[in-house]
Amino acid sequence: MAATQQYVYPDRDEIRIEAVLAALADPVRLDMVRQLADAESEISCSGFDVAVTKSTLTHHLRTLREAGIIMGRQQGTARYNSLRRNDLDELFPGLLQGVLAARR
Question: Residue 83's closest CA among 63, 95, 69?
C-alpha cells in the first residue's frame, strides 16, 4: 500500500472492481466523485458540497480512498483530495465515464 502521511490507499494493481462499485453505490460518495471530476484541481476536505457531518464526511473520504477511487495528501493543516481517474480508466475502461454520465 502506498501512503502519504496518514492517507493509505491501494496501489493501482490492488484496486478491485467490487470495492470501487460498492463505494460508488452510495449517493453521497457518488456526488463527491462527481465534484472531483468537475473540479479543475484538488478539493480540500472542507471544500465538498455535501450535507453530512464532518465525521460522516471523513468516513466517506476514507471509503473512497480505501477503494482506490481518490488519493489524499496533507499540506499544512489542510487535506486535499483528487480523483484517481488515470488509474481507474486504465483498470476499468469506460467505468468512470459511464458512472459520471449516468442520470442523477
Answer: 69
**Other C-beta atoms within 10 Å of 2: how many?**
11
The band of 4, judged by pLDDT with boundaries at 50, 70 and 90, is very low
Residue 80 has pLDDT above 80, yes or no: yes
The structure's pTM equals 0.89
Q: What span, in angstroms and rounded, lies between the C-alpha atoms of 27 and 32?
A: 9
Instruction: Name the packing angle between helices 54-67 and 27-38 (round to 10°).
Output: 70
* The three grid cell numbers given for residue 27, joined into one nine-digit string: 449517493
